[in-house]
Amino acid sequence: MAAAETETPWDAVIARSLAYQAMHLAGLADTSMVKRAQFLMTLGLPRADAAAMLGSNDESLRVQLNQAKRKAATNGGK
Description:
By secondary structure, this protein is mainly alpha-helical. It is built from 5 helices and no strands.
């Protein structure tokens, strides 16, 4: 019973690893955190997982994404 409780969710580990590799292969390693997070979330990662992969937290990333959305709306999507 103890083994089942501490079992590693390997599907999730593999998915996060592949998403991280895809981000770097796409040339997004030197872009803003918002662009990298949007890419990871497009691949299907939850915002909290994307934030953790980028060295941030969910709340901080939520605020940054909202600020970027507002900035894009005021700049006409540029």
